[in-house]
Amino acid sequence: MMKKQFLCLLQLCLLQLPLAGKVVQTYHVVEPGTLAEMMGESWQGIDSLVVSGEINNDDVATMRQCVNEGRTTGVNLQDAVLPDDALPDGAFADKLRIYDDQYVGYDYRLQNITLPKNLRSIGGNAFANCGLRHIDLPETLESIGVNAFSGCCWLSGKVCVPPQVSALTGTFNGCERVTEIEIQANYCVLGNSAFDGMFSLRHLQLPENWCANNSQCVFRNCRSLEGEIVIPASTTKIGLDLFVMCSSLKRVVLPESLYYCNTSFDYSGLEDIVWPKSMVYGNARVFSFRHCKFRQFFANYFMRWVEPKNFAGNELLEEFGLDPSVELRADALTGCKLLRAVYSVGETPPRITGGNPFPDKRVDAVLYVPMGATEAYEAAEYWNTFSQIVELEEFPEWVVSHSKALQQ
User: Fold this and answer.
1) Are 179 and 199 in the same domain?
2) More confident position, 4 or 314
3) Among residues 247, 265, 293, which one ends one of the domains?
4) 299 phi and psi, to 5 degrees?
5) Which of 180, 244, 245 is nearest to 206 (CA)?
6) Domain total for the chain?
7) Is the dihedral of CA 363, 369, 372, 376 positive or negative?
8) Residue 340 sits in which domain range?
Protein backbone atom coordinates (compact mmCIF):
# COMPACT_ATOMS: atom_id res chain seq x y z
CA MET A 1 0.00 0.00 0.00
CA MET A 2 2.81 2.38 0.96
CA LYS A 3 4.63 1.56 -2.30
CA LYS A 4 1.50 2.33 -4.34
CA GLN A 5 1.01 5.71 -2.61
CA PHE A 6 4.67 6.58 -3.20
CA LEU A 7 4.41 5.78 -6.92
CA CYS A 8 1.24 7.90 -7.25
CA LEU A 9 2.97 10.82 -5.50
CA LEU A 10 6.05 10.44 -7.72
CA GLN A 11 3.88 10.42 -10.86
CA LEU A 12 2.09 13.60 -9.72
CA CYS A 13 5.42 15.33 -9.11
CA LEU A 14 6.72 14.34 -12.53
CA LEU A 15 3.59 15.71 -14.19
CA GLN A 16 4.09 19.04 -12.47
CA LEU A 17 7.79 19.34 -13.26
CA PRO A 18 7.34 21.02 -16.69
CA LEU A 19 5.32 23.80 -15.05
CA ALA A 20 7.81 24.41 -12.27
CA GLY A 21 9.11 27.97 -12.47
CA LYS A 22 6.84 28.81 -15.39
CA VAL A 23 4.64 31.90 -15.33
CA VAL A 24 1.14 31.17 -16.68
CA GLN A 25 -1.18 34.16 -17.07
CA THR A 26 -4.92 34.01 -17.83
CA TYR A 27 -6.83 36.95 -19.28
CA HIS A 28 -10.51 37.27 -20.14
CA VAL A 29 -10.94 40.13 -22.59
CA VAL A 30 -14.28 41.95 -22.32
CA GLU A 31 -13.52 44.82 -24.70
CA PRO A 32 -11.59 43.91 -27.86
CA GLY A 33 -8.24 45.64 -28.19
CA THR A 34 -7.53 45.99 -24.46
CA LEU A 35 -5.24 42.99 -23.88
CA ALA A 36 -2.08 45.12 -23.89
CA GLU A 37 -3.56 47.43 -21.24
CA MET A 38 -4.60 44.45 -19.11
CA MET A 39 -1.06 43.06 -19.22
CA GLY A 40 0.78 46.25 -18.49
CA GLU A 41 4.53 45.63 -18.12
CA SER A 42 4.05 41.98 -17.10
CA TRP A 43 4.02 40.77 -20.74
CA GLN A 44 7.79 40.39 -20.78
CA GLY A 45 7.76 37.74 -18.05
CA ILE A 46 4.93 35.45 -19.26
CA ASP A 47 5.82 31.89 -20.30
CA SER A 48 2.33 30.73 -21.20
CA LEU A 49 -0.79 32.74 -22.10
CA VAL A 50 -4.43 31.74 -21.78
CA VAL A 51 -6.72 34.28 -23.44
CA SER A 52 -10.52 34.12 -23.69
CA GLY A 53 -13.33 36.49 -24.66
CA GLU A 54 -13.72 38.73 -27.70
CA ILE A 55 -10.37 39.80 -29.12
CA ASN A 56 -9.26 41.66 -32.24
CA ASN A 57 -6.14 41.91 -34.37
CA ASP A 58 -4.55 44.38 -31.94
CA ASP A 59 -4.80 41.74 -29.22
CA VAL A 60 -3.24 39.18 -31.55
CA ALA A 61 -0.37 41.63 -32.18
CA THR A 62 0.08 41.95 -28.41
CA MET A 63 0.36 38.17 -28.07
CA ARG A 64 2.86 38.05 -30.91
CA GLN A 65 4.92 40.66 -29.07
CA CYS A 66 4.89 38.43 -26.00
CA VAL A 67 6.33 35.64 -28.13
CA ASN A 68 8.81 37.53 -30.28
CA GLU A 69 9.98 40.13 -27.77
CA GLY A 70 9.24 38.39 -24.50
CA ARG A 71 9.55 34.76 -23.39
CA THR A 72 6.11 33.32 -24.17
CA THR A 73 6.27 29.85 -25.73
CA GLY A 74 2.64 28.74 -25.34
CA VAL A 75 -0.70 30.38 -26.22
CA ASN A 76 -4.18 28.97 -25.53
CA LEU A 77 -6.99 30.63 -27.49
CA GLN A 78 -9.58 27.87 -27.19
CA ASP A 79 -12.25 30.16 -25.73
CA ALA A 80 -11.26 33.30 -27.62
CA VAL A 81 -13.47 34.82 -30.34
CA LEU A 82 -11.89 36.65 -33.28
CA PRO A 83 -13.58 39.03 -35.78
CA ASP A 84 -15.18 36.83 -38.44
CA ASP A 85 -13.53 33.89 -36.65
CA ALA A 86 -10.38 34.62 -38.67
CA LEU A 87 -6.77 34.61 -37.52
CA PRO A 88 -4.99 37.44 -39.41
CA ASP A 89 -2.02 37.18 -41.76
CA GLY A 90 1.29 36.79 -39.95
CA ALA A 91 -0.51 36.40 -36.62
CA PHE A 92 2.31 34.57 -34.81
CA ALA A 93 5.01 34.52 -37.51
CA ASP A 94 8.48 34.38 -35.99
CA LYS A 95 10.71 37.40 -36.28
CA LEU A 96 13.84 37.27 -38.43
CA ARG A 97 16.79 38.03 -36.20
CA ILE A 98 20.38 39.13 -36.80
CA TYR A 99 23.12 37.87 -34.47
CA ASP A 100 26.56 39.49 -34.23
CA ASP A 101 25.84 41.37 -37.46
CA GLN A 102 26.42 38.10 -39.34
CA TYR A 103 23.99 35.25 -38.67
CA VAL A 104 20.39 35.73 -39.73
CA GLY A 105 17.77 33.27 -38.53
CA TYR A 106 14.73 32.46 -36.44
CA ASP A 107 14.33 31.48 -32.78
CA TYR A 108 11.22 29.30 -33.33
CA ARG A 109 9.88 30.56 -29.98
CA LEU A 110 6.20 29.67 -30.14
CA GLN A 111 6.05 25.96 -29.29
CA ASN A 112 2.40 25.37 -28.42
CA ILE A 113 -0.84 26.88 -29.72
CA THR A 114 -4.44 25.98 -29.01
CA LEU A 115 -6.62 27.52 -31.69
CA PRO A 116 -10.10 29.03 -31.07
CA LYS A 117 -12.71 26.27 -31.11
CA ASN A 118 -14.85 28.17 -33.68
CA LEU A 119 -12.00 29.32 -35.93
CA ARG A 120 -12.94 29.46 -39.62
CA SER A 121 -9.85 30.97 -41.26
CA ILE A 122 -6.08 31.01 -40.75
CA GLY A 123 -4.27 33.86 -42.51
CA GLY A 124 -1.20 33.65 -44.71
CA ASN A 125 2.13 33.14 -42.86
CA ALA A 126 0.15 32.98 -39.62
CA PHE A 127 2.65 30.59 -38.00
CA ALA A 128 5.56 30.92 -40.42
CA ASN A 129 8.86 29.77 -38.86
CA CYS A 130 7.33 29.08 -35.46
CA GLY A 131 8.61 26.30 -33.22
CA LEU A 132 5.28 24.48 -32.97
CA ARG A 133 5.59 20.83 -31.94
CA HIS A 134 2.00 19.81 -32.74
CA ILE A 135 -1.09 21.34 -34.30
CA ASP A 136 -4.77 20.46 -33.96
CA LEU A 137 -6.88 22.21 -36.59
CA PRO A 138 -10.52 22.73 -35.48
CA GLU A 139 -13.30 21.06 -37.47
CA THR A 140 -14.84 24.49 -38.12
CA LEU A 141 -11.84 25.58 -40.20
CA GLU A 142 -12.70 26.52 -43.81
CA SER A 143 -9.52 28.07 -45.21
CA ILE A 144 -5.76 28.16 -44.62
CA GLY A 145 -3.74 31.02 -46.08
CA VAL A 146 -0.58 30.80 -48.16
CA ASN A 147 2.48 29.56 -46.23
CA ALA A 148 0.49 29.41 -43.01
CA PHE A 149 2.83 26.86 -41.38
CA SER A 150 5.81 27.36 -43.68
CA GLY A 151 9.15 26.78 -41.99
CA CYS A 152 7.69 25.12 -38.87
CA CYS A 153 10.60 22.69 -38.82
CA TRP A 154 9.79 21.36 -35.31
CA LEU A 155 6.21 20.42 -36.19
CA SER A 156 5.97 16.62 -36.11
CA GLY A 157 3.64 13.63 -36.22
CA LYS A 158 0.33 13.64 -38.06
CA VAL A 159 -1.65 16.67 -39.24
CA CYS A 160 -5.34 16.37 -40.17
CA VAL A 161 -6.71 19.00 -42.53
CA PRO A 162 -10.46 19.47 -41.82
CA PRO A 163 -13.06 18.58 -44.47
CA GLN A 164 -14.05 22.16 -45.36
CA VAL A 165 -10.51 23.24 -46.31
CA SER A 166 -10.35 23.00 -50.10
CA ALA A 167 -7.01 24.68 -50.99
CA LEU A 168 -3.41 24.38 -49.76
CA THR A 169 -0.59 26.59 -51.07
CA GLY A 170 2.81 26.51 -49.40
CA THR A 171 0.91 25.42 -46.31
CA PHE A 172 3.41 22.96 -44.87
CA ASN A 173 6.47 24.05 -46.84
CA GLY A 174 9.55 23.15 -44.80
CA CYS A 175 7.72 21.17 -42.09
CA GLU A 176 10.48 18.61 -42.23
CA ARG A 177 9.44 16.49 -39.22
CA VAL A 178 5.76 15.90 -40.09
CA THR A 179 5.31 12.22 -41.02
CA GLU A 180 1.66 12.10 -42.11
CA ILE A 181 -0.90 14.43 -43.70
CA GLU A 182 -4.58 13.54 -43.94
CA ILE A 183 -6.72 15.77 -46.16
CA GLN A 184 -10.33 15.10 -45.22
CA ALA A 185 -12.00 17.20 -47.94
CA ASN A 186 -13.68 15.58 -50.94
CA TYR A 187 -11.91 18.04 -53.22
CA CYS A 188 -8.71 20.03 -52.68
CA VAL A 189 -6.57 22.31 -54.85
CA LEU A 190 -2.84 21.88 -54.21
CA GLY A 191 -0.99 25.09 -55.01
CA ASN A 192 2.71 25.86 -55.29
CA SER A 193 4.96 24.18 -52.69
CA ALA A 194 2.05 22.76 -50.69
CA PHE A 195 4.28 20.02 -49.23
CA ASP A 196 7.69 21.21 -50.40
CA GLY A 197 10.59 20.19 -48.16
CA MET A 198 8.64 17.77 -45.96
CA PHE A 199 11.58 15.40 -45.63
CA SER A 200 9.88 12.99 -43.19
CA LEU A 201 6.46 12.79 -44.88
CA ARG A 202 5.76 9.08 -45.42
CA HIS A 203 2.00 8.96 -45.77
CA LEU A 204 -0.11 11.47 -47.66
CA GLN A 205 -3.85 10.81 -47.75
CA LEU A 206 -5.19 12.78 -50.70
CA PRO A 207 -8.88 13.04 -51.61
CA GLU A 208 -9.99 11.17 -54.71
CA ASN A 209 -10.61 14.53 -56.37
CA TRP A 210 -7.65 16.85 -56.02
CA CYS A 211 -6.13 19.32 -58.43
CA ALA A 212 -2.62 20.61 -59.03
CA ASN A 213 -3.05 22.11 -62.49
CA ASN A 214 0.26 23.79 -63.41
CA SER A 215 1.23 24.09 -59.73
CA GLN A 216 4.95 24.04 -59.00
CA CYS A 217 7.05 22.12 -56.46
CA VAL A 218 3.98 20.56 -54.78
CA PHE A 219 5.79 17.41 -53.59
CA ARG A 220 9.39 18.56 -54.06
CA ASN A 221 11.88 17.18 -51.54
CA CYS A 222 9.37 14.79 -49.94
CA ARG A 223 12.19 12.29 -49.62
CA SER A 224 10.30 9.76 -47.51
CA LEU A 225 7.05 9.72 -49.51
CA GLU A 226 6.59 6.11 -50.58
CA GLY A 227 4.58 4.07 -53.08
CA GLU A 228 2.76 5.83 -55.90
CA ILE A 229 0.89 9.04 -56.58
CA VAL A 230 -2.14 8.94 -58.85
CA ILE A 231 -2.69 12.28 -60.59
CA PRO A 232 -6.47 12.85 -60.83
CA ALA A 233 -8.42 12.89 -64.08
CA SER A 234 -9.09 16.63 -63.89
CA THR A 235 -5.38 17.48 -64.37
CA THR A 236 -4.39 18.90 -67.76
CA LYS A 237 -1.03 20.52 -66.92
CA ILE A 238 1.85 19.65 -64.60
CA GLY A 239 4.08 22.50 -63.42
CA LEU A 240 7.77 22.78 -62.58
CA ASP A 241 9.58 20.37 -60.24
CA LEU A 242 6.48 18.60 -58.97
CA PHE A 243 8.32 15.45 -57.86
CA VAL A 244 11.99 16.52 -57.74
CA MET A 245 13.95 14.71 -54.99
CA CYS A 246 11.05 12.44 -54.01
CA SER A 247 13.68 9.71 -53.67
CA SER A 248 11.35 7.06 -52.18
CA LEU A 249 8.51 7.54 -54.68
CA LYS A 250 8.24 4.49 -56.96
CA ARG A 251 5.51 5.30 -59.45
CA VAL A 252 3.47 8.17 -60.85
CA VAL A 253 0.18 7.45 -62.64
CA LEU A 254 -0.74 10.20 -65.10
CA PRO A 255 -4.33 10.76 -66.28
CA GLU A 256 -5.58 10.60 -69.86
CA SER A 257 -6.62 14.26 -69.52
CA LEU A 258 -2.97 15.39 -69.27
CA TYR A 259 -1.59 17.16 -72.34
CA TYR A 260 1.22 19.38 -70.97
CA CYS A 261 4.14 18.39 -68.74
CA ASN A 262 6.60 21.03 -67.59
CA THR A 263 8.31 19.19 -64.77
CA SER A 264 11.60 17.57 -63.91
CA PHE A 265 11.69 14.22 -62.15
CA ASP A 266 15.33 14.54 -61.05
CA TYR A 267 16.45 12.58 -57.99
CA SER A 268 13.08 10.89 -57.60
CA GLY A 269 12.87 7.16 -56.90
CA LEU A 270 10.72 6.55 -59.97
CA GLU A 271 10.84 3.03 -61.37
CA ASP A 272 7.91 3.42 -63.74
CA ILE A 273 5.92 6.13 -65.46
CA VAL A 274 3.21 5.65 -68.09
CA TRP A 275 2.55 8.57 -70.41
CA PRO A 276 -1.07 9.12 -71.46
CA LYS A 277 -1.95 9.20 -75.13
CA SER A 278 -3.34 12.69 -74.61
CA MET A 279 0.14 14.16 -74.05
CA VAL A 280 1.10 16.67 -76.73
CA TYR A 281 3.87 18.72 -75.11
CA GLY A 282 6.75 18.21 -72.72
CA ASN A 283 9.25 20.96 -72.00
CA ALA A 284 12.52 19.24 -72.91
CA ARG A 285 14.64 21.87 -71.14
CA VAL A 286 13.27 20.84 -67.73
CA PHE A 287 11.98 17.39 -68.67
CA SER A 288 14.80 15.39 -67.06
CA PHE A 289 15.19 12.19 -65.11
CA ARG A 290 18.59 12.43 -63.44
CA HIS A 291 19.30 9.80 -60.79
CA CYS A 292 15.98 7.97 -61.11
CA LYS A 293 15.64 4.19 -60.84
CA PHE A 294 14.18 3.23 -64.19
CA ARG A 295 15.08 -0.10 -65.72
CA GLN A 296 13.14 0.74 -68.88
CA PHE A 297 12.32 4.11 -70.37
CA PHE A 298 10.69 5.19 -73.62
CA ALA A 299 11.18 8.73 -74.96
CA ASN A 300 7.86 9.62 -76.56
CA TYR A 301 7.35 11.99 -79.47
CA PHE A 302 6.20 14.81 -77.18
CA MET A 303 9.61 14.95 -75.49
CA ARG A 304 10.97 16.33 -78.78
CA TRP A 305 14.60 16.02 -77.67
CA VAL A 306 16.69 14.60 -74.83
CA GLU A 307 19.06 17.18 -73.38
CA PRO A 308 22.66 16.46 -72.27
CA LYS A 309 22.76 14.43 -69.06
CA ASN A 310 18.97 14.25 -68.79
CA PHE A 311 19.41 10.64 -67.69
CA ALA A 312 22.68 11.05 -65.80
CA GLY A 313 22.94 8.74 -62.81
CA ASN A 314 20.30 6.26 -64.00
CA GLU A 315 22.58 3.41 -63.04
CA LEU A 316 19.81 0.80 -63.25
CA LEU A 317 18.61 1.72 -66.75
CA GLU A 318 18.96 -1.31 -69.00
CA GLU A 319 16.57 -0.59 -71.89
CA PHE A 320 15.87 2.69 -73.65
CA GLY A 321 13.47 3.32 -76.53
CA LEU A 322 12.55 6.36 -78.57
CA ASP A 323 10.12 7.55 -81.22
CA PRO A 324 11.64 8.68 -84.56
CA SER A 325 10.80 12.35 -83.95
CA VAL A 326 12.84 12.52 -80.71
CA GLU A 327 16.25 14.16 -81.06
CA LEU A 328 19.16 12.94 -78.94
CA ARG A 329 21.81 15.42 -77.86
CA ALA A 330 25.36 14.87 -76.68
CA ASP A 331 25.70 12.91 -73.42
CA ALA A 332 21.94 12.41 -73.17
CA LEU A 333 22.43 8.96 -71.63
CA THR A 334 25.71 9.59 -69.84
CA GLY A 335 25.97 7.57 -66.64
CA CYS A 336 23.58 4.79 -67.73
CA LYS A 337 26.24 2.16 -67.07
CA LEU A 338 23.97 -0.88 -67.44
CA LEU A 339 22.40 0.13 -70.74
CA ARG A 340 22.21 -3.05 -72.82
CA ALA A 341 19.43 -2.35 -75.34
CA VAL A 342 18.27 0.65 -77.36
CA TYR A 343 15.02 0.39 -79.33
CA SER A 344 14.70 2.89 -82.18
CA VAL A 345 11.32 2.28 -83.82
CA GLY A 346 11.77 4.50 -86.89
CA GLU A 347 13.11 3.30 -90.21
CA THR A 348 15.04 6.55 -90.43
CA PRO A 349 17.54 7.09 -87.58
CA PRO A 350 16.48 9.84 -85.13
CA ARG A 351 18.58 12.97 -85.29
CA ILE A 352 21.64 13.27 -83.03
CA THR A 353 23.29 16.67 -82.44
CA GLY A 354 26.35 17.91 -80.55
CA GLY A 355 28.10 14.60 -80.03
CA ASN A 356 27.63 11.02 -78.88
CA PRO A 357 24.54 10.63 -76.65
CA PHE A 358 25.35 7.08 -75.57
CA PRO A 359 27.47 5.90 -72.60
CA ASP A 360 31.12 5.50 -73.53
CA LYS A 361 31.55 2.22 -71.67
CA ARG A 362 28.37 0.36 -72.50
CA VAL A 363 28.97 -3.43 -72.57
CA ASP A 364 27.51 -5.44 -75.44
CA ALA A 365 24.69 -2.93 -75.98
CA VAL A 366 22.39 -3.92 -78.82
CA LEU A 367 20.56 -1.51 -81.11
CA TYR A 368 17.15 -2.82 -82.20
CA VAL A 369 15.62 -1.34 -85.37
CA PRO A 370 12.74 -2.10 -87.80
CA MET A 371 13.16 -4.66 -90.55
CA GLY A 372 15.25 -3.33 -93.43
CA ALA A 373 16.63 -0.35 -91.48
CA THR A 374 20.12 -1.66 -90.66
CA GLU A 375 21.83 0.02 -93.61
CA ALA A 376 20.43 3.44 -92.69
CA TYR A 377 21.62 3.15 -89.07
CA GLU A 378 25.06 1.89 -90.10
CA ALA A 379 25.43 5.00 -92.23
CA ALA A 380 24.27 7.41 -89.50
CA GLU A 381 26.82 9.12 -87.25
CA TYR A 382 26.85 7.82 -83.65
CA TRP A 383 24.23 5.18 -84.46
CA ASN A 384 27.01 3.35 -86.23
CA THR A 385 28.99 3.03 -82.97
CA PHE A 386 26.84 0.05 -81.96
CA SER A 387 28.67 -3.20 -82.64
CA GLN A 388 25.36 -5.07 -82.85
CA ILE A 389 22.32 -3.93 -84.80
CA VAL A 390 19.37 -6.33 -84.80
CA GLU A 391 16.26 -5.98 -86.93
CA LEU A 392 12.89 -6.81 -85.37
CA GLU A 393 9.59 -7.71 -87.00
CA GLU A 394 7.84 -6.91 -83.70
CA PHE A 395 9.10 -4.76 -80.89
CA PRO A 396 8.61 -5.77 -77.22
CA GLU A 397 5.18 -5.02 -75.76
CA TRP A 398 6.49 -2.32 -73.40
CA VAL A 399 7.94 -0.45 -76.42
CA VAL A 400 4.74 -0.80 -78.47
CA SER A 401 2.56 0.40 -75.59
CA HIS A 402 4.58 3.62 -75.27
CA SER A 403 5.33 4.45 -78.91
CA LYS A 404 2.93 6.62 -80.86
CA ALA A 405 4.74 5.72 -84.09
CA LEU A 406 4.03 2.00 -83.60
CA GLN A 407 0.41 2.61 -82.68
CA GLN A 408 -0.44 4.58 -85.83
Assistant:
1) yes
2) 314
3) 293
4) -85, 105
5) 180
6) 2
7) negative
8) 296-408
